[in-house]
Amino acid sequence: MNMRLPALLSKRKSDSHKGDYGRVLILAGSRAFVGAPCLCAESALRAGAGLVTLGVPQGLYNVIASKAAFEVIVLPLPDTAEFTFSRSAAGAIAGISKKADCVLLGPGLSVNRQTQDLVFSLIGSLDVPLVIDADGLNCLAARPGVLKNAKSDIILTPHPGEMAALCKCSTTEVQNSRKKVAKDFATRYNVTLVLKGHQTVVVSSRGEFYVNHTGNPGMATAGSGDCLAGVLAAFVGQGAKPYDAACLAVHIHGLAGDLAAKDKTQISLIASDIIEYLPKAFKEISRS
Q1: Within-domain flag for 60
Q2: Most CB atoms closer than 10 Å: which of 99, 165, 191, 198?
Q3: Residue 177 sits in a domain of what CATH number?
């Protein structure tokens, strides 16, 4: 696949405004996971999203708002007593999503029963492209069939353990047949699927696949997947087709990790370093 930046991601008109570059809505966070939403949001901004709104459980608003980048709009939403999203948040999310070009659902979300019900509801009701990551996938594993009710494009970003849960098989089975497992699931449920790991596999709903060759073992660190999800949502929000967006996102995400590792070593690499090196990755890919 040609990894040159598409025109929509490489050059901006002089009279453009933030609305031209994608409005991304991120739904993330729970009491144990307040960092994941912030990593997603900043990654989306660094990947060119014009506007990023971060929806969080209202009981966590103060702590997440204090940690998020200044440029992120943080929005409190109805939550449960455990500080996870309540199923009653569906109405507010439906209204907000009407102004979004992409919705990212899942990082740090938890698998609380009400939150799980919300995930099922959003898959069947939102008519905007939806990226599902992390706990969004863990919730989905209970009822993957709801994907067939989706009204818009769906992109899933599982690591091998999450893929195994979705397929009701073992992680070993996934790792022994990565391309086949990913392709079978993507075509069965009409989704774009990003099976993360060494040489991440991207499969379209029609069975096209791409194997990524950027990235390094230093990226096996907490929060790396949150960064990828943010980059991917930004590309979808800017108008890239799901498969193209996914291929480009895994390539640039891995390249940023490679550039960071050269300076900081694989041992010391952390997720926020990937965000820091995204600008250098964009420069490098633009020259290729």
Answers
A1: yes
A2: 191
A3: 3.40.1190.20
In a domain, 210, yes or no: yes
Q: Is the pLDDT of residue 7 over 60?
A: no
| pLDDT tens, residue by residue, 166-178 | 999 999 999 999 9
d(CA 242, CA 230): 14
Q: Structural domain of residue 167, as residue ranges?
A: 20-287
Kindly state whether residue 137 falls inside one of the protein's structural domains: yes
Amino acid letter for position 51: L
Please tell me the total count of domains within the chain.
1
Encode pLDDT of 70-125 as tens digits. 999 999 999 999 999 999 999 999 999 999 999 999 999 999 999 999 999 999 99
Helix (H/G/I), strand (E/B), else coil: 277: coil
pLDDT tens-digit series, residues 16-37: 999 989 999 999 999 999 999 9
Place of tokens 């200044």: 70
Residue 157 lies in a domain: yes
Measured CA to CA, the distance from residue 165 to residue 246 in angstroms comes to 21
Q: Decide: helix, strand or coil at residue 109.
A: coil
Q: Which residues pair with 156 in a beta bridge?
A: 132, 193
- Sheet order of strands, 73-77 included: 73-77, 51-57, 23-27, 102-105, 130-132, 154-156, 192-195, 201-203, 209-211
The whole-angstrom separation of Cα 172 and Cα 253 is 25
